[in-house]
Amino acid sequence: MSETAAQPQVETHTPKELVRQPLVLNNRPLGWITEQVAGIVEGRMPRWWNVAFIISFLVMMMCFTYIGYLILTGVGVWGLNHPVAWGWAIVNFVFWIGIGHAGTLISAILFLLRQKWRTSINRTAEAMTIFAVICAGIFPGIHVGRIWLAWWLLPVPNANSIWPQFRSPLLWDVFAVSTYFTVSLLFWYMGLIPDLATIRDRLRKNADKCTTGCEKLINKVKQYLYGIFSMGWIGSNRHWRNYEKAYLLLAGLSTPLVLSVHSIVSFDFAISQLPGWHTTIFPPYFVAGAVFSGFGMVLTLMIPMRALFKLEEIITVRHLELMCKVIMATGTIVGYAYGMEFFIAWYGGNPYELYAFKNRAFGPYWWAYWIMISCNVISPQLFWFKWTRTTPWFIFVVSIFVNIGMWFERFVIVVTSLHRDYLPSSWGYYSPTQVDILTFVGTFGLFMTLFLLFVRYLPAICIFEVKGVTPQADPHAKEGGADKVEGGGH
Amino acid sequence: MSKPFAIMAEYETPAEIMAAAKKVHAEGYQKWDVHSPFPIHGMDDVMGLKNAQVGWFTFLGGLTGLTVGMVMIYFMNKFDYDIVVGGKPLFSGFYAFPVAYEMTILLGAFGSLGGMFILNRLPRHHHPLLANARFADVTDDKFYVVIECEDEHYDENLTRTLLEGTGAQHIEMVEDAQ
Description:
The structure holds two protein chains of two kinds.
Chain A: H1 2-6, H2 30-42, H3 47-73, H4 88-112, H5 122-143, H6 169-206, H7 213-229, H8 237-270, H9 282-308, H10 317-347, H11 351-362, H12 366-378, H13 386-389, H14 392-418, H15 434-457, H16 463-468
Chain B: E1 3-11, H1 14-26, E2 32-35, H2 43-47, H3 54-80, H4 93-119, E3 143-148, H5 156-164, E4 170-176
Antiparallel strand pairs in B: 1-3, 1-4, 2-3
C-alpha cells in the first residue's frame, strides 16, 4: 500500500470488474432449489395443466385416427402425386428432427464449452429432443406406403433373402435417427438418476405425513418406482467421479452425433441429382437451421413453463437472453446459407440450378419462400436490441416466428425443388389435403402430451447441476470462490 | 441380526466436508466415502482418487460399434447377397462410413453408461445407507462422511473422536440390517 502511495500521482483507472449475473437469483439456499423443483412433481397439478393435457390428448388422438385412416386407405389420402412425391410427411420429419437438435446442443456442446447456464434448461431441452424425435420418426414410417413392410428398413433379410441396400442415404437416416433417439434417451436418463434419487428420498421423508391408506399406497408405489429408476443412488463421491466422467464422455459422443444426424438428413436431399437439392452446403446449413429451430422451440416451451411453475429465479431472464443470442447467431448463419445458395446457383453456371432458385423465390411458391425469409432471416435480427432479448413475451412471439419459418424452410426445399421437373409436361402444383394438415397438427398433440407428462412426473430442471453452479456449492466460497484460492478452480 | 456398518458424520457446507475429508484421508482410511447432493469440485484430489476408468468402456464400445457396422455392411451387401446398384462398388468404406459411425457412437454411449454402472457397482437397492432416515438428506442439502467399520484403521472411539474434531454437527452409527 505504502509503495503505491509513494509513487507520483498518475491517475490510474482500474477497469471496474464486471460481475456476472448469478445463475440462481436471490442467493437461494440449496434446499430451496430441491423444494422448488421437486415440489412440482409432488404437488397436485394446477388447473391449467389438466386443461392443457386434455386438449393435447385429444389432438394426439386425432393424429392417430388420421394415421389409421391413412394405413387403411393408402397414401393417396395425402396430396402427393407426380411430380411432388415427397410432401408434408418429409417436411414434417425434417422439421421435428431439427427441433430436437437444440436439446443435444444444450446438453452436450454447451457442456463441453463449460457454459454453466445450460444447467437450468438442459433437462427440459433434452426431453424436448426425445419427444421431437418420436414425432419425427412417425412420418417416414407411415410414408413408406405399405407400412407393414416398414421392417425392410431394419438390417434383416426380407422374404427373398435380400438385405437392405446400404448405399442409400435413406438407410443411413434410419441408423442416424435411431442412434440419435437412443443416445439422447441414455443421456437424459443418466442426468435424471441423481434427481430421481432426490424424489425417492423426499417421498420417504414425506411418508409419515400421509394420513389415508390411499395416500400411503400411492407414496409406497411412487417410492418403489422412483427408487428402481434411481438405481440406488447414494451421492457417493466415488460414484460421482465415474458419473461425471461418463457424462463427459456421453457429451463428447453426442456432439459428433448431433452434427452427423442432420448432416445425414441433408444427404437425403444432397446426394440426389436434383437441382435445388444437389448442393454441398446442405450439411452445415441444415445443422445451423436445426439448432436455430430447436432453440425457437425451447423458448416456446420454456417461457410459459417458467411463468406457470414460478421458476423465474432458476430460469432467469439472463438464460432467455443467452438463448436469444444463439438464435440470432444461427439465424444469421441460415440467412447466409440462403444467400450463398443463390450465389452458387448463379456462379456455378448451371442453368437448371439457377432456374430452380429463381423459381423458388419468384415462382408459384413465392409466398412460402418469403414467409421463410421474413421469419428466419429478418425476425432473429431483432435480437440485436437488448430490450427484445430481455422481454419474455416478445421473445415468445419471435420464437413462434422461428418455428413457422423453419417449417417453411423445409417446405420450400422439398416442394419447390420437386414441383417443376426438367420437362414442362412434368410440372405441377402440390397442395396438402386435410389428412396431411391434421396429421401434422396432431403430432403437436403427441408432443405436448409427452411434454406435459414429463413435467408432471419428472423434475423439469436438473436439481443437482443447478445446485452445483450456486456460489454456496463452491468449497472455497468463504475465501471468495475457487478462482481466488491457490490450487483452486479445478 | 443387525451389525454396525459404518460411522456417519453430517456437515452443512461443502467447505466443512472438504476440510473433514482432508483429515480423514490424512489418517489413512481406505473404506470411506463422501456423500453429497452434487459433485464437489476438488474432492477427488482431497480423497486421493485417481482418474476414473470409464473411458475404457467407451472405447471398447465404440470399437465394437465401428467393427460391427463395417463387417455387417460388408457381409450384407457384398458377401451374402450382392446387388449392383448404379454401378457403385459392392463394398466401400466410404459409403459404409455413416452407418458404422453411428454404430460407433451408439455402442460407445452404451459403453459409457454401462461402464459407469459397472464401476459404481450399481444398481444396488439394499445399501445400508439407504435404510438410514437421516441420510435421506444427502440428495437435498446435507453432506456426509461415512467410514466403514471394516476399514483396518477403524476404531470405535478413535474414529468418532476424529470425526468430532472435524466439526460435524451430527454423528451416528449406521446399522446393517442383514
